[in-house]
Design brief:
Elements (H helix, E strand, L loop, with lengths): L10 E7 L3 H14 L7 E7 L6 H5 L7 E5 L7 H8 L7 E4 L5 E2 L1 H12 L5 E4 L3 E2 L5 E3 L9 E4 L2 H7 L11 E4 L5 H10 L4 H10 L4 E4 L4 E4 L3 H15 L9 H12 L12 E3 L5 E3 H18 L9 H14 L3 H15 L8 H17 L6 E5 L2 E5 L4 E4 L7 H5 L11 E4 L2 H47 L5 H32 L4 H34 L1
Parallel strand pairs: 1-2, 1-4, 2-3, 6-11, 7-12
Antiparallel strand pairs: 4-10, 5-12, 6-10, 7-8, 9-11, 13-14, 15-16, 16-17, 17-18
Length: 545
């Protein structure tokens, strides 16, 4: 008789926790009451990192029926270390590290299990809403997205999901246990602990099947800026690094590690857009360089060892960033000069001027966030190479170009926004749209223009005829008619100019098409305005007599 092995759970919900006994107790209680009765494909593993509160006493009564508790005997310094060491405790086919203060949504978890059973992907990233410490929703989605999901790989993953927010929120990411190489996690941890799990996810799954799901897996709790700054300042002091090291020098070294390992390409770095807790987006590379600058400035003001920036490390970071994006050369010039002040090679009298120079350059770079995606203009469209598509956008698109490109799963909305898999196909689409626009304009705008022009012209000719033939009228009547004729001509000119401005605005994106569309209009305009001008001059001569 063959031995029947127990079925492996589809998903392990692993909850690393430290000194949040009441929080983690409420979370496990909720899952036991609302999720566990609906599926036998889940196990819950709580990993207690030597908490000195009542975590153990609160969780132990809930053990059983797929719920487990592990109490560490040795404290691990960071949440990332607790995550990495917890992997061996997870028996599920997929692992979900669940933040102990985040609020899960049961329906989405069941949908996740169905995708796991369908073998849809190896890594899932969910587009969850963000809440504050009081549970109030700050933004309904971490990124702007339209469809139910999008499948990505390689550079597409980091260019769409970012690095330090959506992927960094452990409750948003579920991964296949089989492909999670723990040795890679230790390599990432050696660079710096913060965001080491993101490097681990990317290194293990960037070239496998990844799916971004546009559903709320959790309500992701994100503390306000002041609380986060205070927390990470304590972590920085404990690890003996500068306050901004994690997002400056540390993150830069992580990027270099990812590129050196072939996880991502250097060219993808300037195309990474990160989300804020309010849903807005920014260019991560610019922000990282700004934190390097902040760290260098701090090294001028503080003599403590942890604030100092090693010259070789700074040169390594600078050369790496320049190799990925040559625009960063201008940002690093004042940073290098500021570092010379910190090391005594330049006078502190230059400090304010160099800071002002960096701030000015950084503002200019930050204003054009899609500069590295832009690929020129064609047929009145701006052309961009985005993560998953080539995109053509009309400059006058509703909401503006930046808002249109902030959607990670772009959809075509002709004629304002066009998509294609390569540049040639996109340019062909843009050309077709320009031709259709020209055809519509040739049927509508010039005809309307000429009808209005002919009507006004006929009226003005009649006025002039009456002015010329009524020689027996008094001079005051003659003057009145001539003045009226001139006023009518002026009004006609204003209307003509107004119409032509609208035509020019419609074709401002393609001067050549505009000239072709209005060539015969301008010729007719000349033919009709010439006799009008003759009439005006004749009227003036009559008035002068």
């Amino acid at each position: 008789m063959e031995m029947v092995l127990p079925r492996k759970p589809a998903l392990t919900i692993c909850i690393p926790t430290y000194n949040r006994g009441k929080r983690v107790h409420a979370l496990v209680l909720f899952l036991k009451q609302n999720l566990m009765p609906l599926t036998d494909d889940i196990e819950i593993v709580v990993v207690n990192n030597c908490s000195n509160d009542s975590t153990r006493e609160l969780i132990e009564p809930l053990i059983g029926g797929g719920i487990k508790l592990y109490n560490r005997k040795e404290f691990l310094e960071t949440a990332e270390l607790n995550m990495f060491h917890s992997l061996e405790l997870c028996a599920g086919e997929f692992v979900w590290y669940h933040g102990d203060d985040d609020i899960p949504t049961v329906g989405t978890i069941l949908y996740l299990i169905s995708m796991i059973r369908e073998n849809a992907a190896d890594l899932y990233v969910f587009n969850s809403p963000v809440i504050d410490d009081d549970g109030q929703v700050l933004c309904p989605k971490m990124v702007s997205m339209r469809n139910a999901y999008m499948d990505v790989s390689a550079d597409q993953l980091i260019e769409t999901a970012g690095f330090g927010f959506m992927l960094a929120g452990i409750s948003n990411v579920i991964f296949r246990r089989e492909y999670a190489d723990i040795e890679i996690a230790w390599e990432a941890q050696a660079i710096q602990p913060l965001y080491s799990h993101v490097c681990w996810f990317l290194a293990c799954f960037a070239h496998r099947r990844s799916r971004i799901v546009n559903m709320p897996l959790v309500y992701y709790r994100n503390s306000d800026g002041l609380k986060q700054v205070a927390h990470f300042k304590k972590v920085a002091e404990r690890l003996n690094v500068a306050d901004h090291h994690f997002w400056g020098v540390g993150m830069a070294l992580q990027f270099k590690w990812l590129v050196d390992r072939g996880v991502i390409t250097g060219g993808s770095l300037p195309r990474i857009f990160e989300s804020r807790r309010d849903g807005s987006r920014f260019k991560l590379l610019n922000e990282c360089i700004h934190k390097v600058y902040t760290q260098v400035v701090a090294s001028i003001h503080f003599s403590e060892e942890r604030f100092q920036v090693d010259a070789e490390v700074l040169a390594e970071i600078r050369n790496f960033f320049v190799s990925c994006d040559l625009f960063t050369y201008d940002l690093f010039e004042p940073i290098l000069q500021l570092h010379q002040i910190a090391t005594g090679q330049r006078s502190r009298e230059e400090l304010e001027e160099l800071q002002a120079t960096f701030d000015r350059i950084h503002r200019l770079h930050d204003a054009d966030v899609y500069r590295n995606n832009w690929q020129g203009d064609r047929y009145g469209y701006h052309i961009y190479r985005m993560a998953c598509h080539w995109v053509a956008v009309q400059p006058q698109i509703d909401g503006g170009v930046i808002a249109a490109l902030s959607v990670i799963d772009l959809e075509e909305h002709a004629p304002a926004l066009l998509l294609a898999d390569n540049l040639d196909s996109l340019v062909a689409k843009a050309a077709d749209q320009a031709k259709m626009g020209l055809a519509r304009a040739s049927r509508r705008r010039p005809v309307d223009l000429m009808q209005r022009f002919l009507s006004e012209y006929t009226s003005s000719v009649e006025v002039h005829r009456q002015a010329v033939t009524a020689g027996n009228r008094a001079m005051v009547d003659m003057h009145h008619l001539a003045t009226r004729a001139v006023a009518d001509l002026h009004h006609l000119g204003e209307q003509h100019i107004s119409v032509m401005h609208r035509v020019a605005h419609e074709y401002s994106g393609s001067v050549q098409i505009y000239r072709q569309a209005t060539l015969w209009v301008r010729k007719f305009t000349y033919l009709f305005t010439y006799p009008i001008g003759k009439c005006v001059r004749l009227g003036k001569r009559l008035l002068a007599r």
